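Budget justification aside, the reviewers requested a transparent look at the raw inputs and outputs of the sequence design task funded under Objective 1. We therefore reproduce one unedited record. The lines immediately below are the structure tokens for a 377-residue chain.
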């Protein structure tokens, strides 16, 4: 259990959080397991997400063009959605907004920090930003959003709460929106109470799965994960596969993804050891590869064309270049948006591809396995 000093440092005050509700539901024992873990350093992806959330909170623009475009899209979409679902005015003078404020359930069952809440006409609209590249569970089945709806209903004087997720790096489709009434919020509250009571039992079961373990801090030390991996890896896959049911094959697939996560943890720890000078038999740090990249194509052409005007022409030089479609998408969209403030990112992409169809090609890569119905919470 947390001591007094840990409680002061923990803004959640020892309570479950809305962001962990999906995991808590799937693996009740994960809450107790995580409380015994040390806080690990943020991964690069998590650190980027933290930075971009801060930009959204303070309405600032990232230096990286791709990140800046993602943040701009989020602002654009949240404005569009709030106007559509709250019936608010475009100047937002009739709207109260809350950003990144931790809210507590009225009975102190759990807490949560909605990224943005807009309140107007006794309605609230909640937006959660996800800056990862894995599509998340849709709004109508997302337990984090359901928990946030409970918290917002408790905090604000509203009769309904609508929730949605914006995930610019995973999907630019119009996001699904789920609406909660006072009645459905109470149903959700009862569901979460049952989940939390089960999770707080010291004998709560551990139920490892790829989805439950995806962001669990106890992954590297969880005995249930270790046992599950042994069970599947100790089998003769060639002989057993044909005998397994589709459900068993899906279980093996999920466990294979867990094994990959375990392996990545081991690799990162080995690299950290080697960087710290720890000797590990048969392993050493390889030097980084040197990459030469032209960062200013126009300047490069001017230099080379000036030295070899007859040989290195504009046509010859561009024949050596590969157009970055992502950067071109951003450039074209910025131009179209300057001419028409209502231009949408998806429309600009579609326009560019149609316009350049005669001087481009479309390649379709091999298909890959994907989860149906979304991934992370």
């Amino acid at each position: 259990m947390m001591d007094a000093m840990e409680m002061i440092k923990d803004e959640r005050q020892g309570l479950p959080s809305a962001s962990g509700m999906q995991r808590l539901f799937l693996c009740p024992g994960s809450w107790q397991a995580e409380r015994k873990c040390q806080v690990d350093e943020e991964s690069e992806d998590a650190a980027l997400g933290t930075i971009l959330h801060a930009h959204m909170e303070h309405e600032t623009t990232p230096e990286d063009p791709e990140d800046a475009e993602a943040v701009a899209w989020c602002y654009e979409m949240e404005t569009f959605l709030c106007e559509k679902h709250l019936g608010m005015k475009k100047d937002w003078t009739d709207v109260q907004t809350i950003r990144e404020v931790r809210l507590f359930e009225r009975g102190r069952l759990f807490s949560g920090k909605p990224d943005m809440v807009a309140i107007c006409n006794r309605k609230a609209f909640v937006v959660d930003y996800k800056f990862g590249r894995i599509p998340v569970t849709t709004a109508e089945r997302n337990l984090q959003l359901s928990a946030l709806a409970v918290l917002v209903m408790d905090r604000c004087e509203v009769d309904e709460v609508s929730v949605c997720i914006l995930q610019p790096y995973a999907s630019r489709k119009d996001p699904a929106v789920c609406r909660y009434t006072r009645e459905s919020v109470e149903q959700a509250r009862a569901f979460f109470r049952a989940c939390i009571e089960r999770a707080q039992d010291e004998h709560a079961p551990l139920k490892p799965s790829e989805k439950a373990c995806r962001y669990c801090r106890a992954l590297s030390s969880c005995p249930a994960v270790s046992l599950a991996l042994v069970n599947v890896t100790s089998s003769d896959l060639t002989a057993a596969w044909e005998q397994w049911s589709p459900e068993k094959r899906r279980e093996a697939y999920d466990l294979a993804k867990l094994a990959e996560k375990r392996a990545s943890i081991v690799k990162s720890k080995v690299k950290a050891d080697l960087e710290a000078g720890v000797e590990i038999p048969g392993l050493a740090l390889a030097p980084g590869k040197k990459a030469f990249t032209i960062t200013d194509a126009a300047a490069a052409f001017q230099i080379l064309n000036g030295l070899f005007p007859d040989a290195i022409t504009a046509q010859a030089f561009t024949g050596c270049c590969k157009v970055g479609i992502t950067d071109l998408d951003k450039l074209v969209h910025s131009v179209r948006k300057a001419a028409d403030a209502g231009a949408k990112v998806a429309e600009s992409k579609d326009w560019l591809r149609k316009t350049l169809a005669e001087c481009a090609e479309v390649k379709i890569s091999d298909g890959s396995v994907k989860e149906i119905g979304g991934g992370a919470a």
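Residues 210-275 form one domain. Residues 1-8 have pLDDT under 50 and may be disordered. Computational costs for records of this kind are itemized in the attached budget.
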